[in-house]
Design brief:
Pfam families: HMA_2 (PF19991). By secondary structure, the protein is an alpha+beta fold. It contains 6 helices and 5 strands; from the N terminus they run E-E-H-E-E-H-E-H-H-H-H. 49% of the residues lie in helices and 16% in strands. The longest helix is centred in the middle third of the chain and has 19 residues.
Length: 175
């Protein structure tokens, strides 16, 4: 069975692999070093059996090295498992889908934040009209409406483009 190699880091001309199943196997890493030198355009190979790592310096693309290693049964690249989404990400995807549907139905005029904003404003007005001026009923609805409105239309703001200018102005150096 061909051992699996995990890419620890990869950059132009440099590839570090971890081969956990061969940890401590000096004979394997010695043979790996010798055989990788036979790969075209591999310039240097440093191995460490204690850490199960191999550092490969090269002037080719990493794909060439992985193909060579697989063909010669040295190791196979193990792709990392896809990260699972957190609950918030899943819920956000559902709301994005609903939001897209609402926008399509209304020709882009209304979205979920707009609906929430309008619902909260109407709720506040309704509480005032009923004579219920107790602060939390209508005031809270308006407060939440403002929060929904400001978060729902973030893409319309400068997205922090002027933030550095604000900090520069605040430090008073007069640039």
């Amino acid at each position: 069975m061909i051992p699996e190699a995990h890419v620890f880091h990869e950059m132009s001309g440099r590839l570090r692999l971890k081969i956990p199943s061969q940890k401590g196997d000096a004979a394997y890493f010695s043979a790996l070093r010798e055989r990788l030198f036979e790969c075209p355009r591999v310039e240097e190979v440093c191995v460490n059996p204690q850490t199960a790592s191999a550092l490969i310096l090269h002037n080719c693309d990493a794909k060439t090295i992985f193909q060579y290693a697989k063909k010669n049964e040295l190791f196979m690249r193990r792709r990392p498992a896809r990260a699972r989404k957190a609950l918030f990400g899943t819920v956000a995807d559902v709301f994005h889908s609903y939001n897209r549907s609402i926008r399509n139905l209304t020709g882009g005029e209304v979205d979920i934040p707009s609906l929430a904003f309008l619902t909260l404003v109407v709720s506040g007005i309704y509480q005032i009209a009923r004579g219920n001026l107790v602060m939390p009923a209508w005031y809270t609805a308006f407060y939440y409406a403002l929060g929904v409105f400001s978060r729902g239309h973030v893409e319309e703001f400068d997205e922090g483009e002027n933030l550095l200018e604000d900090f520069d102005d605040a430090d008073g150096d007069g640039d």
